[in-house]
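>> received
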Amino acid sequence: MPMPERIPAQAQVDQAIDWLVKLRFDEPCPRREQQFQQWLASHPHNALAWQRVNHLGEELAVLPGALSRRTLEGSRSLRSSRRDHLKLLGVLAVGSGLLWGAREPLGLPALLADSSTATGERRGLQGSDGSRLLLNTDSAIDLRYSPDQRLLTLLRGEVSLDSNGDDTRPFHIDTAIADMDTHNGQLLLRENDQGLLLAVRRGEVTLFPSSATPRRVLPGEILQVSADGQLQLAHLHGDPWAWTDGVLSVQQMPLGEFVNELSRYRPGVLRCAPEVAGLKVSGTFQLGDSEQILRLLARSLPVRIDYRTRYWVSIGAA
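>> returned
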């Protein structure tokens, strides 16, 4: 579903938030400032997203000094990643009541989505056409039907679709990165740091990436689609469909990557120290109990789990 002309896409808002974190928390760097200016000028909506996200940052700056100071000092002492800062920024925004007031200027359509999930939640849906959908953690979609087509819009996160092929209307899918059409396809879509991951189990999917010609995606294919429309086969350390069965299934996945995956299903901050990030993890883990997963890691790898609080956990060398 096209975005209104003066509202930036969710991907542009996310990029603006990332730039806000870089410019506020990283050491000053002329090259970074140049890259920021290039990003700002590359699309009119980038400047719009920055204007509104930067305004939110200014409002966050007026939070009680002790709270801001403790948060920033704690993040520096733990050498937090940018991902941690993004989570903290979100916590502060919600805690201060600013997010609800800023949802329109920020262009956050996920707040008004037809269906959404919280962190750690998975939700199954059935469309009026008989198609089945499953939302993964921290995800949001819109679903619309008309006499001419069925339309799914991925606003945030990850969704699997099992389209009912008995319905003759085409099924169109919109995302911030690429659009696609199917009729009876079973497919999975996930927003990630590289753009969009597309996996197809059944049927045919026609992918319409930006700046690229349409491409048929066949069953068994898993593609990574970048924001500029580049396509490449995805090489994963795990089963991208496993979460639909409530598990995280991985094979020789570096611990740092595993922790990033697990953190999607836990509120708060979950960090992995660089000295243990290369350790390999294999197995199938129940997503409904992340604490049990952490205990299994401590038993099977030479690592220690440190709880600063229930919502701030670090994994380091034993």
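>> Confidence is low (pLDDT under 50) at residues 1-6, 58-83, 91-112.
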